[in-house]
Design a protein that fits this description.
Elements lengths: L13 H18 L6 H20 L12 H11 L3 H23 L16 H16 L3 H22 L17 H12 L6 H19 L4 H24 L3
Helix pairs in contact: 1-2, 1-4, 5-6, 5-9, 6-7, 6-8, 6-9, 8-9
Length: 248
C-alpha cells in the first residue's frame, strides 16, 4: 500500500490536479537541467501524463506539454533551448494557461458533461463539446461570451445534422431545409419522444436549444453563457440517448 508521501494526488480535485501538473512540470525541468537520467523517470512521466490527460479532459482542458515521452522533450530542448534558464521558462509558459483555467474552475464556473458517446457517428461532437468547455473557461470579454454562444449553436447545428433523417418527415409534409436545425429537432422529438409523459422533456430540450441561440445574438453575460454551454451539453447527450434507444 502507498503511503501519503508516494500516493499520487487526487486529480479529481482542483488542488490535486494543480499539484500533479506542477510535479510534471518539475520533472520536465529537472531532466533538462542536469537532474535524473531520462530512462530512470520515463515511466513516472508517462503514467502521470496519462492520468493528467484523463483528468483535464473531464474539465474541458488539454494536457499542456506536447511530448508523449521525455526523449521527445530532449530532442526539442537540445535543438531549440540552449541553456537551463530558457528550458525552465518554456515549461512554465506552457503550464501557465492551464493553471489559469483551473483557477477559473475553482471559482465555480465550470461545465459538467456526463460522458462521451460510445458510437462512432457521434464521436466528432465529443471533441466539439470539449472545445465548448474550453471556450467558456477562457471567455473574458463580451465578444468572448458571444463566441461561446456561437460555438454552442454550431454544436447544435451539427447535432441536428445527425438527426435529419428523411423517414422522420410525415408523408403529407415537405421535408425541412437541410439547415433548419430547429425543424429537424422538432421532427425528431415528435417521433422519438412522443406523448404527454414526455412533454416536459421536449420542452426542456427546446428551451436549451433556444438559450444557445440567444447568447449568440443577445447582450448577455457570463452566467447566461455558462447556462447556454451547459444546456448544449444536456441537449446533445439527451438526444444521443434518444437516438441510441431508437437505433439511429
Amino acid at each position: 500500500m502507498l503511503d501519503d508521501s508516494t500516493r499520487p494526488p487526487d486529480v479529481s480535485t482542483i488542488d490535486g490536479l494543480v499539484q500533479d501538473l506542477e510535479d510534471q512540470a518539475a520533472l520536465l525541468i529537472s531532466v533538462a537541467t542536469g537532474g535524473p537520467r531520462i530512462d530512470d523517470v520515463q515511466a513516472e512521466y508517462v503514467q502521470r501524463r496519462q492520468r493528467l490527460i484523463r483528468a483535464l479532459e473531464k474539465r474541458g482542458l488539454g494536457y499542456p506539454f506536447p511530448w508523449p515521452e521525455l526523449w521527445q522533450w530532449y530532442g526539442f530542448w537540445t535543438g531549440s533551448l540552449p541553456g537551463y534558464a530558457p528550458r525552465r521558462t518554456h515549461i512554465r509558459k506552457l503550464l501557465s494557461p492551464t493553471l489559469d483555467a483551473l483557477e477559473k474552475h475553482r471559482s465555480g464556473i465550470q461545465l459538467t458533461d456526463p460522458g462521451a458517446s460510445s458510437t462512432e457517428k457521434w464521436a466528432d461532437l465529443d471533441g466539439r463539446l470539449i472545445g465548448l468547455a474550453a471556450e467558456l473557461t477562457a471567455a473574458a470579454t463580451r465578444d468572448d461570451i458571444q463566441d461561446v454562444g456561437r460555438r454552442a449553436r454550431e454544436v447544435l447545428l451539427d447535432c441536428a445534422g445527425l438527426l435529419s433523417d428523411p423517414s422522420l418527415v410525415p408523408v403529407s409534409q415537405d421535408p425541412p431545409r437541410a439547415g433548419d436545425a430547429k425543424a429537424w429537432l422538432n421532427l425528431f422529438l415528435a417521433v422519438h419522444a412522443p406523448g404527454s409523459n414526455r412533454e416536459e422533456l421536449r420542452r426542456l430540450l427546446r428551451d436549451g436549444w433556444d438559450l444557445a441561440q440567444k447568447v449568440t445574438h443577445g447582450d448577455l453575460g457570463r452566467i447566461e453563457a455558462f447556462a447556454a454551454a451547459q444546456a448544449t451539453i444536456l441537449v446533445v447527450r439527451t438526444l444521443q440517448q434518444l437516438a441510441s434507444n431508437s437505433r439511429i
